[in-house]
TrEMBL record:
Keyword Translocase: no
Domain of life of the organism encoding this protein: Bacteria
InterPro entries: Inhibitor_vert_lysozyme_sf
Pfam families from the UniProt entry: Ivy
Key word Magnesium present: no
Name of the featured protein: C-lysozyme inhibitor
Keyword terms: Signal
Signal peptide extent: 1-22
SUPFAM superfamilies, A to Z: Inhibitor of vertebrate lysozyme, Ivy
Amino acid sequence: MKSSALMGGLLAVLMTGTAANATPATFSTYRKDPAWEQRFDAMFGRTPKPDWLRNATESEAVSVTMDGRPYTVLLACKQHDCANHQLVVLFNREAIYGLRFETTDNSPKEELTWLNIGGGPESIDGKTILYAAITGSLFNHPAMFAFPAGK
């Protein structure tokens, strides 16, 4: 599949750099790949992408394991308002899932929009990983997010 080859090439380039000279992988890094961007856009379905993504603050990619398979997690948030507007994506070569988080300062209400979540392992472990990225737990404890293959 052509998109898998492109994605594999991008992942190989990202993983071959040394720590001293490698640019951290972020949303911007992946969005330069047209095949990845197409998958990212499709993930939203009929849900509009947030306008703030164009100038978002981005975190470095984090590796996790879901259902015994490696995935990458990316987080972006609205510049100067990260606590209230976030988007996180969990993906590998075969699948892409997301969570859009919206709230207002000091509000107990959170609006969670799950993107491309079906009935597979993403419906439980994937949601756990995505929400953990929003809360910061994933970035503070990345080794805790290695979920083995299901039974």
